């Protein structure tokens, strides 16, 4: 239930060593929820992240795999952190997956590598 989620979330949100990542299909709803959670629970915004959406993330994963990782990151910032190692979508149990759930078929613009 939503109430059970809110109770569990409150426990996680008040643990200072826990980062919180929200995501949705495109990124709008996760951004709104991340802002709401920061305000409602008085959480430092440096611990709450909104992924720009699972759809663009699938394209970023493919781009990361097909490029030299030394070129990944912000070109305008030489000190930008760059992803290293293998990047994948994973299930809650930690298994790699190609399955992506989107808001609906009209929003299913994931990279062709994903389902």
Catalogue the unreliable spans: 68-82
Over all CA atoms, what is the radius of gyration?
16 Å
End-to-end span in angstroms? Answer: 28 Å
What order do the SSEs take from the amino end to the carboxyl end, as H and E?
Answer: HEHEHEE
Write down the oligomeric state. single chain
Number of strands: 4
- Give the CA-based shape: globular
Q: Residue share in helices?
A: 25-40%
Q: State the secondary-structure class.
A: alpha+beta
Report the β-strand fraction as a percent range. Answer: 5-15%
Main β-sheet, spatial strand arrangement: 1-2
Largest sheet: 2 strands, parallel
Whole-number mean pLDDT: 76
Note down, in words, how this protein is organized.
It is a single chain. This protein has 115 residues and is α+β, with helices and mostly antiparallel strands. Helices cover 34% and strands 9% of the residues. It is built from three helices and four strands; from the N terminus they run αβαβαββ. The protein has a two-stranded parallel sheet with strand order 1-2. The protein has a two-stranded antiparallel sheet with strand order 3-4. 9% of the residues are buried. About 13% of the residues have low confidence.
């Amino acid at each position: 239930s939503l109430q059970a989620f809110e109770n569990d979330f409150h426990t996680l949100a008040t643990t200072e060593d826990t980062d919180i990542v929200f995501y949705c299909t495109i990124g709008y709803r996760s951004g709104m929820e991340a802002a709401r959670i920061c305000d409602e629970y008085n959480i430092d915004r440096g611990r709450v992240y909104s992924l720009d959406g699972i759809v663009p993330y699938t394209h970023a994963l493919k781009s990361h795999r097909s490029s030299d990782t030394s070129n990944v990151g912000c070109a305008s910032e030489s000190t930008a952190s760059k992803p290293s190692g293998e990047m994948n979508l994973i299930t809650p149990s930690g298994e790699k997956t190609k399955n992506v759930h989107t808001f609906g078929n009209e929003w299913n613009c994931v990279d062709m590598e994903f389902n």
